[in-house]
Amino acid sequence: MRIVLRIGGSVVASPLNPDLIRQYVHVLKMLKKQGHEIAVVVGGGSLARELIKVAKELKLDEADQDELAIAISRVLAQLLLKKLGRLCGKSVATTVGEATEWLHKGKIVVMGGLRPGMTTDAVAALVAERVKADLLVKGTDQEGVYDKDPRSHPDAVKLDSLKFTDLQGVLAEDQHKAGLHQILDPEAVKVLKRQRIKVVVVNGFKPENVLAVVRGERVGTLVS
């Protein structure tokens, strides 16, 4: 199976969590051993959002804010890459083409952000589109997708499954902005819907959820 794993920065980097990074390395090694092809995209989390906040106070434009967030996501991706060692390419992939090349060489691909105006969700979606992924798993700071934001609505209900057409109705934002933090970026949704790529959103604080999804178990929220 060809898998794209999107690890939220809100999970591994808000604050930095070395133990969780180690757990993800173990999961990725297991998936590789099982014969799966894997690309991992890491977000910038609260570290990136803190830099964006400072950039705004310094009156930097949104593209500059995005570039700072991208730099942080690539540093976090490098932590994962270094710990995985020879299973990965020599460096963090900085283009979709480079990611495809490493994957074709039998390596685990590790990435952060790509360019201003694009979230790491969108990066994961574009990689999934280019490599014709069978599955995209996103590890978030929630149990899955809810009918409304559970952080501000205590009565929010987790959805076991929903269609891409319904997903846009539960997203808070419908366009990109620096530091956007929600279950799935709207631009990513457009790509995934267009390509009909199976997406499962899970609690990323439990890396074993990724293995459960690959085994076909019902966990998190299936978006199809």
Question: What do you see in this structure?
Answer:
- The chain has one domain (2-223): 3-Layer(aba) Sandwich (Carbamate kinase).
- It has nine helices and nine strands.
- It has helices at 9-12, 18-33, 45-57, 62-84, 96-104, 120-131, 164-167, 186-195, 208-214, and strands spanning 2-7, 37-42, 109-111, 135-140, 145-146, 158-159, 161-162, 198-203, 221-223.
- It is globular.
- Mean pLDDT is 91; it is low at 176-181.
What are the defining features of this structure?
single chain, 224 residues, Carbamate kinase, 7-stranded mixed beta sheet, 9 helices, 9 strands
Task: Measure the end-to-end span.
Answer: 17 Å
Total domains? 1
In spatial order, strands of the major sheet run 3-2-1-4-8-9-7
CATH topology: Carbamate kinase
What Rg is obtained from the alpha carbons, in whole angstroms? 16 Å
Number of helices: 9
> What is the CATH architecture assignment?
3-Layer(aba) Sandwich
H-E order: EHHEHHHEHEEEEHHEHE
**What do we call the CATH homologous superfamily?**
Acetylglutamate kinase-like
Question: How much beta, percentage-wise?
Answer: 15-25%
Which regions contain 5 or more consecutive residues with pLDDT less than 50?
176-181
Mean pLDDT: 91
Number of strands: 9
Task: Please state the structural category.
Answer: alpha/beta
